[in-house]
What does this fold into?
Amino acid sequence: MYGIINEYLGSEEIERPRGLDNRVGGDSVAIRMCAIASYARKDRIGYYLENSKTKWRLVWRPVYNGEGTHCYIAFNGFQYSVVITSKPFDYNLDSFHDWSMNYLKCLDLAPWPYTRFPDKGPLVGRGLLEQLEALKELKDENGVGLYDFLVENAIPDNYSINCTGWSAGGSLAVVLASFLKFELRAKKHRLPKIVSVLSFGGPQSWNRAFCEEYDKNFRINGWRFDNMLDPIHLIAVNFDIFGYLSSYLDPKEMMISSYQTFDEYCTKMGDLSVEEEKRKRTYFYETHLKRGTIDINHERLGSRGETRDMSTLEKWWCNCESQHELKRYIRLLPSMWKLDDLFKDYETRYDKKWWQFRKKGWEVNDPC
It folds into this structure.
């Protein structure tokens, strides 16, 4: 299904979709493959793919060190899909700040080296560059890396390649696909008929020059899915979304320290992004502004009915979690491939935060 859909993505007739009326078939498969990457114990990814009632099978999995960015490659007979997961964060200000500013370093733009147009000055978040290098260093038990595996298996038979991920994994899918296409050209490999990207809720931490080159490379094969009530995907390019949502807070409940309110924090982060733009003489920008963006819930933006009680900071972060979590994207992209098909043994536990699985011994006591 997913591979067939990406054959369709080669059509010149595809126009920019908005909302779910024109969504891309196969998106629900991709987001569930992201769920397997995030929820399943790493040595059980193959088991869940085999029990997903699809043709997808695990073909490459790196030795996992238990930290940070991870990925796997699945194959369905005619397409390879690189599924990326990244470091999560707890939904509170300290954890979010560490994730966005120290892990992703989203307000620290660095030169993008894998470009055919260096004179235009493409930049991406420094943390994305670091995590891309971490992905390139991953090896399976035979010492084969991600890039070498694709060159040896996808390129000779002209199989399509897809990169997909959720949250920071979605941003990494964008940079990984850009790297793959550049590197394959640079080393004179024949490009696959299709190299595609499906990104879910990934922060937009790059400048216009990068976006323009990316959009040109993936003009009809790149897709971006964003829940418009989820502020995380706009943290770099538009930190004002935090300020907008903070208007729901009771002013008496906005104190995050004895000297700073949440509104002041949002303003400070916005000022930092402006300062970075001035230093680099560029602007944070978004991919897929002309085509390829599917805005989920955009018709409900600003509707109090779509938000929970956000009168306190704790409730504000709970609402943020409910809109950004992977489970929300799964519900917004329904399909016949249900969660019970992925996690039959844990149907009653799925409503918990995914990192709570580990706390409850879910990974250790997996009976499968």
